[in-house]
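Q: I'm teaching a short session on how sequence maps to structure, and I want students to see two examples side by side rather than one. Could you give me a first protein with its sequence written out and its structure tokens following it? Keep the formatting plain so it prints cleanly on a handout.
A: Of course. Example one:
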Amino acid sequence: MGNRKKHIKQFLSLLIVIIIINTLSSVWFHRFDLTKEKRFSLSETTKELLTTIDDYIYIEVYLEGEFPAGIERLSIETEYILAEFKSQNPLIKYNFINPTESTDDNTRNEIINQLFEKGLNPTTLQIKEGDGYSEKIIIPGAIVKYGAKEFALSLLKNQIANTPEQSIEQSIRELEYEFTNAINHLTNPVKPKIALISGHDELEGVEIEDLTNSLTEQYTLDKINLREFETNADGEPNLKKKLRDLTSQDLLIVVKPKRKFENIDKYFIDQYIMSGGKLIWLIDATNADMDSLSSKGTFLVQPLKDLNLNDILFKYGVRINNNLVQDISSSKIPIPTSFTNNIPKWELVPWNYFPVAIPSSNHPITRNLNAVKFDFAGSIDTVKTRTKINKTILLQTSPYTKIVNTPHEVSLQTALKTPLQEEYKRGNQALAVLLEGNFESIFKNRINKLTADLPFKENSKPTKMIVISDGDIVKNQLSRGVSLPLGYDRYEKRQYGNKTFILNAIDYLLDEDALIDIRSRELTIRGLNTQKIAKEKTFWQLINIGLPAMMIIIFGLMKQYLRRKKYEK
């Protein structure tokens, strides 16, 4: 009887302890991250952002269903991150959805098309089933909603140079950045102001529709024509008003101009930079264009001598050469290789005039970035300046390059020739360069009657700019008149990193240092040593299978021995 009361007391005591622990845990919540690099802990930037949210944020993640191990792992890690977000602020609500679960083909295709229009690209997986493979379409992305606004983000980073395992690891590394960046853009009431420069036949409209749509979601986007002016009361152009319009912008972007910049245009841009403005130059130094090639099969590439930008770029520290870079690391284009009954047979062949730059720099703009596709790019040289300018090469070709000077005839027939590696020995060629420092005005010590009565600064505040030798890296392809996502190649059916690169560049120039720090955060995801596994496979199989069996046998023999010894007495 006494033992029974004792057991009841112990049970009641244990029950009371469990109740107290559960009560305290519901009030006081804490997670312990024992990983060396604090992989499961959110950065302070993310925590601060989440504490400012005062309205519901809904996140729809399209990673629900049966997946291969890698995608399943990405889905689990995504849920971990979102659970951390929710633990910081209960206004974060998330839900995992299977967009392809409908058995009706029309319904399923309509959902996929709707998500594609929002910026989420479907991915086809090959799944092994028995002796064969089956294909499954997944949409590894999410939609973040805040009020009437929403933000689409891709969760799977398919880098060309990466193995599937490396792509999964990179995707997991960037989960916090992707969701934090989306929430920041949706909840930030003050949007930085960006203007596209026009007036020189720059790219615009449907050609850069995906870029402008993305910028409109995240920034206040404007277009400023340097060749149009409001007039004063005396009918003269109001140049000061134009300068004020420019200096009110946080960032200017010049996208592939084809007509000459007059001195007054350069004055506006120069003084904008002297005021501390940020700028991205996307400049083609030649007239190379695939439209001319596709209509004729051959055309003569010539330098664009009338842009009148060489002197201002040289003053800031770079020179865009009017040559063409050919690279063995290149994208592909469709070419008719044969004809049957006058019907062409098309094949995708490497096109060395379209370099594919695989980022190797550890800079925040390009760290973990997918390969970036260029079209008819020229090389960039850095030059010495009077003031100290830090020059960082963000993107460059592979070591296996060839330089052709212009004028130069380009023909589709060259794509059918196998490149000889001994001819491609010019080494890495810079294609995108970041300039940071105090710039000197191109108009310093120069008499300019046109701007004599206008404000003038000889040297800039600390600022930065990026120079890229190809405007087409921000040009989206079209399919039946509809804009495709920037960086998506409809022939190769491959997503390049053009869009991420340009958006990262904009974030960096706009001093979004906190977000850049999250993205560049190094998280070591420790995988298994496959070579060691193969080498020691038999040993560990014996340990895992044989050791437990041997322990059971020894335990049984010992028990039998002790039992026999007990009863022998």
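Q: Perfect. Now a second example for contrast.
A: Example two:
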Amino acid sequence: MIFRRVFPGLLGLACLFFFSGCGSQPRADLVLCNGAEPQTLDPALVSGQLEGRICAALHEGLTRRDARGKAIPGAAQSWKISPDGKTYTFTLRPDMKWSNGDPVTAEDFRYSWVRALDPATASPYAEILFFIRGAEDFQAGRAPAAAVEVVAPDAGTLVVHLKNPVPFFLSLASFTTYLPVHRATVEKHGDRWTRPEHWVGNGPYRLKAWRVNDRVCLEKNPAYHSPERIRLNRIDALAVTRASTAFNLYSSGQADVLLDKGLIPSLILPKLRGRPDFHPAPLFATYFYRFNVTRPPFDNPKIRRAFTLALNKEAVVDKMTRGGEPIALSLTPRGVPGYRPPEGPAQDEDTARALLREAGFPNGQGFPRVSILYNKSELNEQVAVEVQAQWKRALGVQVELRNQEWATYLRSLDTLDFDIARSSWVGDYDDPLTFLDCFATGRGNNRTGWSDAAYDNLLTRAQAEADPATRFRLLEQAEEILVSRAMPILPIYHFVGCLMFDPGKLDGLLPNLLDEHPFAEIGPKGK
């Protein structure tokens, strides 16, 4: 999931606030602009990419991602996969310790996964563990925790039984929700366990300080199992939502890295092309709008279709994003070998007006007051203004704009407190299921209220299907329902990622489809 950005102004004040230092410490070895203020640093509660980046530095899963986004050994030094692809046996590193010196054991992983599945935890991402046998039944209250088929026969061995073969499970094992947490710390401090004075982790970095709306300070973890690969002693991840502020911090040398295009003012993007510190690349990610289908007027599929057909997506990209993004007619971006994303309907204003008339609102007359919700950022606001103007011109409807800070915005999505909401999704693994499973009935990331039995059935059949080609055809049918028939979402464009950093000074930052940039991989050029 990816959200961020906003509006020029008060740069001097921002610089004074940001660079007062982490306490009285000197400048960090690396300062990067990470996006909005983190909502949480509890891996079980994280649903956003910006928090996930920090968690991946503080905690290490069975596997971890390298700079190319590839899953490689992490806390597990090796693994075996059963012939049917349903059982994974992980052997943990024998030298692993938590940052407080306690040994990391297989039971720590079982505890952490069951904790994320526990309904009392209220993890928004619990469903990403549903590949495990018994996980969904426990999370739904149909079975006890013992039904979750993750077994720790000894301190160094973890056995995971899956419902179906999952070809991307090693990649999943590095994902935020799969990260281990220190049980004694969590149980002693409750919701406060992520405070720096309480925090215990097993990652390459430890939590030195967390200054709300300023920065998260990370320092090298001396208890990490491979300290020789950690190239920086301290990293500061700044909470910056204003693209103008972030770019000025970078341009003045007060920040070393901008991690995504949302932190670059869209107006200057064309001028950056060709610069050695500008690094664009395709992403496995999509920018889209959600409709709240649980209340009028968007409980009516004719109205959802009318709003979709009335949108000129090319104009949004040409006038607002300016990064050469391909428009999205599907939710899943192209690029997965063998998968052919279905194309949703193209712009058709005449049909859109006819649908709105059939729904009882000719030329928009009598249409209720609705709004577009978006998290504060320059780009999100610019896109919303453009969409607002298009719908006014094409349909005669007045759509209001409503922006919120990151944490409040996420709560509004979770509680369906919106009419239309700006969203985006970065694939968690290189497979179309990472997009399509979000909209299965009851998923924490559904956030539309939409439910369709045929769609759910196709996803279920696809996950049980051993033949890759047949599996993809089932997923294509499901996506056809999502983007061409029911339309609880409106795909707008697929992302092009943009990193900014000086390649003469830093390495370990590589563009990749999953937009993974592990902090522990970054270091001074040539060192």
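Q: What should students look for in example two?
A: Point them to this: The mean pLDDT is 92. Also worth mentioning: The domain at 11-256+501-524 is CATH 3.40.190.10 (D-Maltodextrin-Binding Protein; domain 2).
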